[in-house]
Amino acid sequence: MPKTTPADRAAELRKEIDHHNQLYYVEAAPVISDREFDKLLQELIDLEKKHPELVTPDSPTQRVGGAPIPGFKQLTHKVPMLSIENSYDEDDLRKFDADVRKALGPKAVVEYVTELKIDGVSMAITYENGQLAFAATRGSGSVGDDVTHNAKTIAAIPLKLATKNPPKTFEVRGEVYMTRSELVRINAEQAKKKADPYKNTRNLTAGTLKLLDPKECAKRKLSIFVYGAGVMEGLKLHKQSELLAKLKEFGFPVNPHEKLCKSIDEVLAYCKHWDKKRKELPYDTDGIVIKVNDWDQREKIGYTAKVPKWAKAFKFEAEQGTTKLGAVVFHIGKFGELTPVATFDPPVQLAGTTVTHASMHNASWVAERDVRIGDTVVVEKKGEIIPQVVDVIKSDRKGTEKVITWPEFCPECGAPVKKEETANSYNFNCSNPEACSGGMWKRLEGYARKTRMEIDGLGREVAKQLVESGLVKSVPDLYRVDKKQLLTLEKFGDTKAQKLLDGIAASKNRGLARLLPALAIYMVGEEMAEALAEEFPDIDLIIAAKPEQLAKVKGWGPERAKYLRAYFDGPNGKKLVAELKELGIKMTHDKKAAPAGGGSLVGKTIVVTGTLAGYDRVGIERAIKDNGGKTSGSVSKKTDFLLLGELPKASSKLEDAKKLGIKIINEDEFNKMIGK
Predict the structure, then answer these.
(1) Mean pLDDT of the chain
(2) Are 439 and 335 in contact (CB under 8 A)?
(3) Strand ranges inside 351-487, DSSP E
(4) Which conformational region is residue 557 in: left (phi greater than 0), alpha (psi within -120 to 50 degrees), or beta?
(5) In what order do the strands lie in the sheet with 259-261?
(6) Is 238 left (phi over 0), alpha (psi -120 to 50) or beta?
(7) Buried-most residue among 226, 310, 521, 656 (CB within 10 A)?
């Protein structure tokens, strides 16, 4: 009998370990104990230490992680990771079904795939020629963080596809999660260290994936259920049910409770069943995802600018609890609005977290419900995320409850508080919102948004730090901050500080259409600001315009014009504009040029199918709209062009266009039309 070489034994161990991982994570049918599995893994680790030349990229030993990485890169999703619209009741799901059938026609046979909505973190994992190449979080849907170093530590994610003929490129999508028992184990360790416990599995999962040291990530036993795919090069599928079967075949864990439903009644029965049974699962879920099974039907149903119209996320009934309203404090919003926040005594446990306070919306809401300090209140977590007071149990009143009184002066800046009424409600607002420190960090966060001044590195936590440290007391202060000051802040090193400074510098040239909504002027959002900038392409023209001139801008009207006029006529608005001008902020708008080459899209209807190299779905719709055209979700005789991208499978839109003789253009031709 030939002697077993180290290379033979290493190959044998890798094969055996992969087999047991498959049994454990994919088939949920382990045949050996954790201790026996650990012995096999340790033998392979020891063998590879003695013979480093035997280490392969897909060896199970590579899951323990290498050296910490210096920071996160960002990766662009070639196929955007769209969100799914939520539904909270049966009527909404029946309307969804009716809309699907209306789009497909009365003779269509519709099937739905229903899957548990895992409460975790979405991830896209790309395999090239069967090997794990890189992984990214969902992020904005178009761009996510590169977390390849941590994805490789998750044992449920195969390092190579379990097939001899892998697709050239295959991107799988799933939800990374943590079991409740693992959270308990980690919190027991926290208690030994006298550290604060982690509140829930979702937040801890997100934090774990953001660790720079993969060894630390490996210590926390994350797992994954996969449910979808992005780019599929060299693989043709036609249904969600086919994809789930292929994912299992490739060695991925697919949630065992997915079901193919033949009618909306079956879907509703599935939702009701799991609303009752979900607490028996070892992991957290917050709803059911319902998808049209047939991919050709999905193409016909189409998308809105943000979500697919062929899918719906049914959210479980919010968990409720009762407690006493101990006190009310007032937070200041970015427009100066006073938001009453209830503090609970005692705190209430909801959806795995301790809730100590919750918003009560505005003065009108409080008055309508006659909420009083000392009342027994019903608290729920909407979508199991945002806590809110939803009702008052007045039968529990003892007569000692106190009416909530609103402050006469702003609790943050001391300016007088004024009552402001709209058609259906009223609230109390700070009379000096532009200078009020209370809403400053919220205004700063909004100013830096991607669709506004797009300041990389300036999110909510950094905005809070800048304001609370006193470095930023107004938007212009942002442009006066230097690296030395930033390095005094917690968690700010040289790289992070420079990234923020680069983002601030780049924002100076965004232009008027993006500056206007960034200034937090009431009722002035991105779309309205762009329309205004097209009519008045210099801020001085806007400042000089009369209310009736502003009101004539498309979509504006007298009320929006009134708020804008009040902003620029007030002392704080004038001061802010003057300071930003002095700091070199661009306050003009480059009007859109007519498309080059006679390719104007004015009056043209364009249908898009496939993946485009230079646009995500929102971006291409914006480009068409910006150049005078409009988009449609289906091909008809009224369609002028079909814009064809890369197709992972057959497209019903392409076939319909061919039958109707619709002109088909590619991305290069489209770009020439718009002069890009």
Answers:
(1) 87
(2) yes
(3) 353-359, 372-373, 376-382, 386-393, 402-403, 417-421, 426-430
(4) left
(5) 86-87, 311-315, 285-292, 112-118, 259-261
(6) alpha
(7) 310
Structure-token match 């909801």, residue found = 350
Catalytic residue numbers, as ranges: 117
Largest CA distance in the chain: 97
Domain span at residue 570? 440-582
Q: Residue 287: helix, strand or coil by DSSP?
A: strand
State pLDDT tens for residues 353-382.
788 988 888 899 899 999 999 999 998 876
Backbone region of residue 110 per phi and psi (left: phi > 0; alpha: psi in -120 to 50; beta: other values): beta
CA 557 to chain centre: 33
Is position 503 within any domain? Answer: yes
- CA angle (487 as vertex; 481, 207 as ends), nearest 5: 110
Do the Cβ atoms of 449 and 515 come closer than 8 Å?
no
Name which of 80, 226, 85, 205 is nearest 144 in CA terms.
80
From start to end of 138-182, where are the E strands? 143-145, 169-177
- Is residue 73 domain-resident? no
Q: For residue 116, give the H/E element and its range.
A: strand 112-118
What is the chain's percent helix, strand, coil content, to nearest 5? 40, 25, 40
**Other Cβ atoms within 10 Å of 273 Cβ, number:** 13
Local structure of 21: helix, strand or coil = helix
Question: In 303-416, at which residue ranges do the beta strands (DSSP E only) sit?
Answer: 311-315, 320-332, 338-350, 353-359, 372-373, 376-382, 386-393, 402-403
Q: What are the start-end ranges of the H helices in 24-116? A: 34-50, 90-104
Quick check: 33 pLDDT over 80? no
**Are residue 342 and residue 451 in the same domain, yes or no?**
no
- pLDDT per residue over 266-313, tens digit each? 999 999 999 889 888 999 898 999 999 999 999 999 887 668 999 999
Q: Which of 315, 312, 322 is nearest to 355 (CA)?
A: 322
Domain containing residue 642: CATH number: 3.40.50.10190
Count the domains in the chain: 5
Q: What is the pLDDT of residues 488-498, one digit of tens each?
A: 998 899 999 99
Q: Looking at the chain, how many residues does it have?
A: 676
| Amino acid at site 662 | I
Matching residue, tokens 């619209």? 85
Helix (H) or strand (E) holding 673: helix 667-673
Query: What is the CATH number for 537?
Result: 1.10.150.20
User: Quick one: average pLDDT of 578-607?
Assistant: 79
Encode burial over 524-547: b for 16+ CB neighbours within 10 A, e otherwise.
beeebbbebbebbbebebbbebee
Specify the pTM: 0.60
CA dihedral 274, 279, 281, 287 (to 10 degrees): 40
What is the rounded CA–CA span in Å between residue 384 and residue 372?
25
DSSP state of 493: -
Residues 328 and 310 in one domain: no
Radius of gyration of the chain, Cα coordinates, nearest whole angstrom: 28
